Amino acid sequence: MKTEFEAIPLVKNENKKRFEIEIDGHFAFINYGEREHQIALVHTETEPELAGTGAAVAVVEKTLEYIKKSGKKLLPFCPYVFAYIKKHPEWKAIVDEKFGGYDQL
Q1: What is the CB-side half-sphere exposure of residue 67 using CA atoms within 13 A?
Q2: Domain spanning 3-99: which superfamily?
Q3: Contact 57, 42 (CB under 8 A)
Q4: What is the pLDDT of residues 29-68, one digit of tens each?
Q5: How far is the C-alpha of 26 from the C-alpha of 69, rounded, in Å?
Q6: Would you say 58 and 1 are in contact if contact means Cβ atoms under 8 Å apart?
Q7: Which backbone phi and psi does 6 adopt, to 5 degrees?
């Protein structure tokens, strides 16, 4: 992640069911669903003002770190998150082995 995003806190917005970071009044976020032992990441998005800034990567990395610390397993339904994990296989350790695309990571 770019250094300018490191100090920006990740917010788990339970009302909107998304993990988010805010940069200059604009958001990068990942919609999620949660169960007792799993967190499903469904869709990653950045507001147009953040396109090409690296904000999407930052929110993904911060969210994966949150899931790792929580001890829950990840269900990466979001294609962006799935592709990120394929490029960074060290994150496969937090993916639930029962996830349908597990063998493709």
Answers
A1: 31
A2: Gcn5-related N-acetyltransferase (GNAT) (3.40.630.30)
A3: no
A4: 999 999 999 999 999 999 999 999 999 999 999 999 999 9
A5: 26
A6: yes
A7: -60, -40
Contact residues for 32 (Cβ-Cβ < 8 A; gap 6+): 17, 18, 19, 39, 40, 41, 42, 63
Query: Could you state, in order of their start, the residue ranges of all structural domains in the chain?
Result: 3-99
Sign of the CA dihedral running 44, 16, 2, 63: negative
Residue with tokens 């069911």: 17
Whether the pLDDT of residue 23 is over 90: the answer is: yes
- Show the tokens assigned to 76: 């990466």
